[in-house]
Amino acid sequence: MKKIWHIGYLDLKLTVKDKAFFFWFLVFPLVFILIFGNLFRGSKTDTKAALTVLNQDRGKWGAYFIEKLKSPGIELAVETIEPKEYFRMLVIPADFSAKIEKRAAQSMLLKKDAEANMQAGAIAETKITQAIAKLIAELIIYGNQRDIQAFFDSRSPYRDLVLVQTRLPKDTIAKIPSGFDHVIPGVLVQFVMMMVLIYGGISVMEDRKRRVLARILYSSTSFAELFSGKFLGRVLMGLLQSAILIAAGILFFHLNLGNTFISFLNILVFTLAMACLSIFIGSVLKKEELIVGVSVLLSNMFAALGGCWWPAEIVPPAFRTLGMVSPAYWAMDVFHKVIFFGKGLDAVWPNLLLLLAFTAVFMALALRFFKIEE
Fold first, then answer.
1. Crossing angle for the helix pair 2-17 and 223-253, to the nearest 10 degrees
2. Distance (Å, rounded) from C-alpha 145 to C-alpha 124?
3. Separation CA 172–CA 235 (nearest Å)
4. pLDDT in tens, 25-79
C-alpha cells in the first residue's frame, strides 16, 4: 500500500510542478466560470413575491382592490404607466369600477417575466386569488348598500380570517438551473475530464517511452502496485482540481453544493472513471499532441452532451437521450438533483452506479492495453 501511495504522490507532484499547472487548473477554469456564469445568470433576482399592479381603473374600486392585495409577504408596487421591467404585473382595466357597479363579469391580466422565481410567483398568485375572494365576499354582504361611500367607509370583519400558505408540489423544481450554481459544477466536470485525460495520458505515455514503468516494475514493485499507483495519481489529480474550483466557487461566487456529502461523492466517483480512461488513452496513443487532441475532443464532446455548457433539462428529448452516453451527463444530473431539486441519496444512487459502470469499463480497457514498454 505504501508503494501505491508513493507512486501516486510522485505523479501528482510532477503535475503540480508543471509550469502550466496553475493556468490550466485554476486560471483558465475561472475565466470560463466568469464568462458563462454571467452569461447564464438571470439579469434580475426575484427572491420575494414581488407584484407590480398597473391600475388603469377610472373609479374607486381599483384602489380598494389594491388595498386587499397588501400583505407582509408581498412586495407591492402600484403604477399608472406600464413599467419596462417587472417580475409579474397585474393589470386592472379602466372599466374595473364600472363593471363592478353593474355586477358585470370581467377579467384582469397577469403578465409574468420568464426569469421570475416560480415559488415567489405562486405566493403572489395566491394573494391575488385571496384578494378577489375577499372583494366578492364583501360585495355579497354589503352589496345592498346604495351609498357607495358607505361601502368604502365600512370595515370588513372578514379580513385575514383564513391563512393560506403556499408551496410547490413535491419534486417540483424550485430554481431553474442557471448562474454560477450551474456553471461551476459544469466547468468542474469539464476540466476534470480534460486535465486528467491530458496530464494523466501524457505521463503514462512518457513513462512508458522513458522506461520509467519498466524500472519501477523491475524493482520490488508488483504490476498491481504499479497500476494502482498510476490510477491513484490520476484520482488525486482530479480531486485536487475539484477542491481548487470548489474553494474558489464558495469564496468568490457563493457556490451552493446542496447536499455536500453527495456532491463530493459524485466528484469522487466521476474522477475514478476519468482516471481509468486517462490510463487507457495514454496506453494506446504514442504521441503527446495526439493525446492532447483526443483528450480535448473527448472532454468537449462529453461536456456538450452531458449538460456542462447548458442545462440538460432545456434541450430536446432526443439530444438529452444522446447525452446519456457521456459520463458527464450522469455527474451533472447528480449536481442538478441535489442543488436545484433538493434530492437525497435515494434519488441519485442510480447515477452513481452508472458512473461506477463507466469506471469498470474504462478500467477493463486500461488493464487490457496498459504496457510497460514499447
1. 50
2. 31
3. 35
4. 888 898 888 888 777 665 455 556 788 999 998 888 888 888 888 877 788 888 8
Other CB atoms within 10 A of residue 13 CB: 11
Q: What is the pTM of this model?
A: 0.69
Cell of 115: 426569469
In degrees and rounded to multiples of 5, residue 75 shows phi and psi of -90, 100
Q: How far is CA 66 from the centre of its chain?
A: 37
Please provide the size of the chain in residues.
374
Tens of pLDDT, residue by residue over 90-125, are 999 999 988 888 888 888 888 887 767 776 777 888
**Contacting residues for 142 by C-beta, under 8 A, at least 6 apart:** 151, 154
Domain range summary for the chain, segments of one domain joined by +: 2-41+178-369, 49-153
Interacting residues of 233 by C-beta distance below 8 A, sequence separation 6+: 7, 8, 9, 10, 11, 12, 15, 200, 203
Q: How many other C-beta atoms can be found within 10 angstroms of the C-beta atom of residue 164?
A: 10
CATH code assigned to 49-153: 3.40.1710.10
Cell (9 digits) for 119:
415559488
Q: How far is CA 291 from CA 195, 200, 206, 239, in A?
A: 11, 10, 11, 21
